[in-house]
């Protein structure tokens, strides 16, 4: 079901102006709800997964073997900054394990 923004169905009438003044400026259907919270969490998880996969891709493209334990540690990391350090390190390390010396 598609819904219109508040006040749209009121046309250009005084009632529309009253409605707009009553509604908070930040009104958005679903804002602050479990739906929005779930969406934001999924978005954050997606960014983490993408960053972790980038670390692994860099290591793979450089021909550096990644053990199952290293793969698991990278993929389960929940800190974007740590994954960023690991991504930078992946460009220069000689072994996959060396990325953990850099921020992790």
Describe the structure.
- With 104 residues, this protein is mainly alpha-helical.
- It has a domain of 71 residues.
- Helix content is 54%, strand content 0%.
- Helix 2 packs parallel to helix 4.
Please give a quick description of this structure:
With 104 residues, this protein is mainly α. It has helices spanning 14-22, 34-61, 68-75, 80-90.
Write the layout of secondary structure elements.
Elements: H1 14-22, H2 34-61, H3 68-75, H4 80-90
Helix pairs in contact: 2-4
Main traits of this protein?
104 residues; mainly alpha; 4 helices; 0% strand; single chain; rod-shaped
- Spans of at least 5 consecutive residues with low confidence: none
Apparent shape: rod-shaped
Instruction: Briefly note the structural class of the backbone.
Output: mainly alpha
How many strands, what sense, and barrel or not for the largest sheet? none
Strand content: under 5%
Q: Number of helix segments?
A: 4
What percentage of residues falls in helices of 4 or more residues? 40-55%
Series of secondary-structure elements, N-terminal to C-terminal: HHHH
Number of strands: 0
Mean pLDDT: 82
Terminal CA distance reads 46 Å
Instruction: Give the radius of gyration.
Output: 23 Å
């Amino acid at each position: 079901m598609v819904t219109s923004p508040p006040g749209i169905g009121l046309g250009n009438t005084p009632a529309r102006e009253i409605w707009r003044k009553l509604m908070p400026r930040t009104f958005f259907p679903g804002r602050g709800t479990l739906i929005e919270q779930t969406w934001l969490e999924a978005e954050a998880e997606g960014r983490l997964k993408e960053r972790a996969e980038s670390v692994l891709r860099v290591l793979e493209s450089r021909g550096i073997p990644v053990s199952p334990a290293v793969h698991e540690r990278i993929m389960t990391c929940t800190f974007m900054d740590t994954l960023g350090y690991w991504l930078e390190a992946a460009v220069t390390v000689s072994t996959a394990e060396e990325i953990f010396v850099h921020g992790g």
